[in-house]
Amino acid sequence: MKPKLFALLSLCVSALLLLTSKIPVLAQAPGATHRSPAQNLSPMSEGTPFVDDFNDGIADGWKPISGTWTVLTDVLGIPYAQVSDIGGFGNRFTSFYTGTQFADFTLEVEISSTSQLDPGAFNVGVALRGDGSDNYYRVIFHPNLPDGQLRVEKIVNGIKMDLMPNQSYAASPGPKTLTVTAKGNAFSVQISSEFSTTWHDDAYSAGCIGLTTENGGANFDNVKVTPIITYRVYLPLLANKSGANDRLSLQAGRQ
User: Fold this and answer.
1) What is the mean pLDDT of residues 136-149?
2) Distance CA 139, CA 155 (A)
3) Mean local confidence (pLDDT), 143-153
4) What pTM value is reported for the model?
5) Which end of the chain is more exposed for a tag (fewer CB within 10 A), N or C?
6) What is the largest CA-CA distance in the chain?
7) What are the beta bridge partners of residue 181?
8) How many Cα atoms within 13 Å fall on the side-chain side of residue 131?
9) Is there a contact between 113 and 125 (Cβ–Cβ < 8 Å)?
10) What percent helix, strand, coil does the chain show, rounded to 5?
11) CB burial class (10 A; 0-12, 13-18, 19+) of residue 213?
């Protein structure tokens, strides 16, 4: 590559990175439907985090499919809680947020266990890329001391399949912050500062998020979903040594 052409290309790349780091994020209008980046010609309207702290006392947009879910306005922090110990399919209790579909994102939620029908089989966690009913991923962990356990499941037409069997770790008492990142077929999860792992799967590419418990109750608060946006920018046509024109495609990720 000629020095002048290389210098021009380097300048274009630098300008691109500066541009993507300063693109403003526009707030999504109330009630607007989220669209994936592929469906939206203007990525500037994408990337607005979804946040629900339930401080208004309302679980707007949440759809329980099992268990008993309510906002506890008389509890410090005003969490969204699953308060039932029995009932539901296989004692699994789930509530989906159906107002937005997410593809690539990072999900964070604070979780505190409150009751346990079966302490040895008690789990709490999140659902992701779901259809709001019978198809989704489920990331759950067993917070009991001293042996914490994390498991990743894929629910297909209501049937559970293990993607990752129980992973043991040393747990500590108190509330946990569960963080799950999904990007393409790559996933990662972290439980506070206690445990982290990764996995891959291609079954579901987008969907809604959810909160879930198994054999017990829990409080959920400060739910935050930050979409991961990838921008594709095409630079002008460049002539190669054979005289043909190649279009250079650069991608810059933004979270």
Assistant:
1) 85
2) 11
3) 83
4) 0.74
5) N
6) 73
7) 106, 188
8) 10
9) no
10) 15, 50, 35
11) buried
